[in-house]
Amino acid sequence: MNTIDQSERIPNNVGLADDRALQRALERWQPNYLRWWQETGPEGSEGFDVYLRTAVSVDPKGWAHFDHVKMPDYRWGIFLNPEDPGRTIHFGDHKGEPAWRQVPGEHRANLRRIVVTQGDTEPASVEQQRHLGLTAPSLYDLRNLFQVNVEEGRHLWAMVYLLHKYFGRDGREEAEALLERRSGDANNPRILGAFNEKTPDWLSFFMFTYFTDRDGKFQLAALAESGFDPLARTTRFMLTEEAHHMFVGESGIARVLQRTCDVMNELQTDDPAKLRAAGVIDLPALQRYLNFHFSVTIDLFGADQSSNAATFYSTGLKGRYEEEKLDDDHVLRDRTYPVLAVTNGKLAETEVPMLNALNEVLRDDFIRDSVGGVKRWNRVMKKAGIPFELSVPHKAFHRRIGTLAEVNVTPEGRVVGGDEWSRGAPDWLPSAEDRQFVASLMGRVTEAGKFAGWIAPPPVGINRQPSDFEYVRFA
Ligand SMILES: [Fe+2]
Ligand SMILES: [Fe+2]
């Protein structure tokens, strides 16, 4: 069951050949998916030979195979982690009952909404990243972009499989709608805010894969706890792929920092104007990009108090991050959790029922995880002897969702009036000038082993390939 049959039209480990109706439905969806990919996937990539990893098994010890693949011939498929026949629901009001193999009627609408919301983010990010290939700083980076893109495409397949198999006609309609919405489209946008923002340059791409793909990790991890077993098994496998996306972001930013620090030491300056003239991104600008992507991403966790979050948990649909490692009753009726509120112009914590605060719980887990990588970034400056540290802004900074959307808060966490906000914003968020400058650095480097001047080469290649490896062969 763990091996994937690659010879089938839709590679899978779910026995698709034994379910003819489902197979036919997915084979009808497949050409529409490919049309969507041609229209909104990586621009001009048709005919490129790209060194990609493809899932060939769900065995953690050898799940991926690396080889050059013609871009549109990537084998998108359906892969679920193996079933554990004895699995029980381990949180909420159904705790201790056997996990569901089918959708329980009373939870159908909520489950569909969860699957559709997750599914919608996957094609959205491909659309957001459509033009980046034209300005890739190296073949190595171009390959990583395409790897992320094809796997987000596969994540869409993962959710569409659930919709087709378990949600009947409504599911099929939702699967079509997933190909019709478009990131940033005024009339038919993607569901969540951050997935309608632009990813206009590679600095944004690295911040996006560091922060926003990490939101993906936490959402998937919470769904991997689900009492609906097929959702748990499919998201568990998606997490395996997600790790690489965050690696692309973390190592990408580390390489940008490395290059900037090298030039700072070479020129003996921290003057942003001089550094920009030398073609590298100054550290304060990097902090502003970080502030933007962090704040937009933590909005994705939703309102700080949410009755939906309580329902999803109590009904066993969506757990907490690493639910099994948490030492409590996993029902949470008597627990409280601190959320931020504004009282007398100041931020203060107030205790609310934990069930209603589960978005905040997941957001805080995300923040802790994000901070870890920021600390690793700071080692680059420390090693270079440069006294500058990046940090994540206060969680109330630049929020658009929940109670905190009503106030202006500085990166340090001080509530300020509208005037002070407007005066400070150019220091806190990327300005038009920052964005223009970063855009001006973006040019395409296509020679194997060469890198754009604003980013250092990676310390090791993908799958240990040498530094001058031809990750992408152009047709
Ligand atoms: Fe994804
Ligand atoms: Fe991802």
Can you tell me about this structure?
The chain has helices spanning 20-40, 108-128, 139-166, 168-180, 202-223, 229-267, 272-277, 283-298, 307-314, 358-384, 418-428, 432-441, and strands spanning 49-55, 64-70, 336-343, 346-353, 408-409, 415-416, 472-473. Helices cover 47% and strands 8% of the residues. The chain is built from 12 helices and 7 strands. It is globular, with a radius of gyration of 23 Å. The mean pLDDT is 96. A hairpin with a 5-residue loop joins strand 5 (408-409) and strand 6 (415-416). It starts with 19 loop residues before the first helix and ends with a strand. The chain is mainly alpha-helical and 475 residues long. One fe (ii) ion binds at residues 122, 152, 155, 216.
What are the distinct ligands in this entry? fe (ii) ion
Strand content: 5-15%
Low-confidence stretches: none
How many E strands?
A: 7
Tell me the strand order in the biggest sheet. 2-1-7
**Span between termini:** 37 Å
Structural category: mainly alpha
Q: What is Rg?
A: 23 Å
Helices, by number, come to: 12
The level of helicity is: 40-55%
- Overall residue-averaged pLDDT value: 96
H-E order = HEEHHHHHHHHEEHEEHHE
In this structure, how is the largest beta sheet organized? 3 strands, antiparallel
Basic shape: globular
